[in-house]
Write the structure tokens for this entry.
Amino acid sequence: MPLWLLLPALAVLIPLFAYPLYQLGLLSLFEYGQPQVSGGEPAVFLGTRNYGTLFSDENFWTVLLQTVVFAFACVVATLAVGAFLAVLLTKIGRVPRFMLLLAALCAWAAPAMTGSVVWMFLFDTNLGLVNEVLGTDGYNWLYDKHVGFALVGAAVVWHSFPFVMITLYAGITAIPQSVLEAASLDGATAFTTFRRIIVPMLRPLIAIVVIQSVIWDFKVFTQIYVMTNGGGIAGQNLVLNVYAYQKAFASSQYGLGSAIGVVMTVILLGITLLYLRALRRTGEAL
Amino acid sequence: MRKSLLALVLLLSACAPSTAQPTDTGDEKTGTLRVWLFDEANRAAKEAVVNEAAKEFEAAHPGVKVDISYLTVETRAEKYKGALNDPASAPDVTEVGNTDLASFVASNSMADVTADLKAWGEAGDMPADLMSTVKVGDKAFGVPWWIGVRALYYRTDLGITPPTSYAELVAEAKKVRAANKDMLGIAVGGKYVFGAMPFVWDAGGDIATASGGTYKSAIGTAESKAGIKAYTDLFSNDICPAQQCADLTGGGTVEAFAAGRAGMGILGNFNRSAVEAGVAKGKYAVVPLPGAKPGSVAPAFAGGSTLGVFKSTKKRTLAAQFMLTLAGKKYGLKLYDAMGFVPALKSARAEVVAKEPFLKPFIDTMSAGTRFVPVDKAWTAIDAEKILPNMLQKVITGKATVDAAATEANTLIDATFKK
């Protein structure tokens, strides 16, 4: 294929992705805050000192670990819920299927901001419906770090399972009936059919939803920012993106914020490459 | 060859992040004077006063038109960032939250108005503790416009005796909660820095102390720790349980008091309308927040608003004159009548308190001396990185001792000043 056919794609990708990424990398090498932006002080070249500051910040490592664990848990939960409901969709009648799809689409369509605010109303310490129903008036759901993360995680899963569910449902319905019939003639149970027939045939789709979910959940911002009020009690519920926002925008340290951005990009690229390689090992071309 | 040269030029020109270029500023005597003020819930009242000032100013300066815009709270920070980055879209005169002024000065955006203030007829009427909120080094970069301080609101229907010392405050708060188990003795918040600082200042501590133009953190001193302990001790189950109060902001405590869920609260004179709109209406009174020593007043944070001139203005003289017109006694009093904002000028303050007995405890608090945050660009970072709320919350939730949390905050604050 002649290489020049790539030009239209590059014309879009370079200004929209490569240039901002280049600027991000550049900024991360400078002392660049509001005084520098508005010309009050010159931008000072720091080399890798922003990264040094970042890596020697104990808080950064705590936040990074928290982000990884939180994102991992969210991805697993999203996939489990999404896959379960996708299989369920193929088994139930038209009316319940329609209801379930409608409910999922509503959750999907709700903006993250609105969804988070509504969840907070439900779980409010003094006036929330959940405390009212459970009779635990005055219980603060965000007081304990792990309960707080679980609550936010539930909201994240609620927002993102419909994508997984609908994608997998579409994949499952596209599997030829004859293959499934042959399996059942051979005496396969529903679970065996799922594990040995459906999952292998859906692998490319699963790859896409996994990568998407990893990227989304690693970059989660709105739910944490809104529900834990910018990082929770004493910053116990901070994730990397909110941490970067705090450094970059709230306190106008754009250089340091960019360094966090670069680190996040590298981590996500790494995860994606590893995952793609693992897929190729198992014989799938993507 | 030409292509690679072009590429090289492009690369080189992109090699440093962009910075706004200083523009030539002249001193035009006519034209449109752009003014940015904060939007308020009842803006019409503020607008009427400001428009009157603008009309008077336009009459006195033929050929000048005053164009006023009101910035909404939510988008204010973005508007300012735009103005700082692009002088062409900056205003001539602007209102600035008084804690933001220092970082604006560091961003090179505020004009030095020391000389204008010296020549101002009403300068002698401006109290020194308020002037210090607009000074960086010995230069003034604005003029205090109106002020707000916090004092102790308490419910009059619960049998509370107004406390005159910290010990009494604790005793009264426990009494309220013991009698009404759904109520907080006093609403305090783990994120309520300006509610906590009076206790720290009263104990002789501070966020930071200045020496020779540089600040050094003081939150780790023994005095500060005593103050932190006094405040965080209020988050006990028999006063304001940590579960409920650890993540309250100042606004959260206002809400709790207004909704009738608290016996007392540390609220500002500017929170009165919120309380009047709640169930606490008509059932509260206010006294100065007591210090540890019986009969003393804990120093309050000097909150409020400042007027300043943007450095990029092309109408330097006009801008300073309009700023001083608004800041003067005449419009300060009118603004009080319209909005209830307490004027910064001493004589104007005395006049409004004579008119309005509600203000007396606040004025008493002001007269007892107010304190302020470090006038340094680092304050924006200290605030944004939540160093002080994190410190308070760690103590309140039992994650750290007062000692450990204060020492950690001390280190973090010092690091911020060094940046």
User: Anything to note?
Assistant: The interface with chain B takes residues 22-23, 26-27, 30, 32-43, 125-126, 138-140, 142-143, 229-235, 246-247, 250-253 of chain A (CB under 8 Å). The beta strands of chain A are 30-31, 44-45. Chain A has 13 helices and two strands.
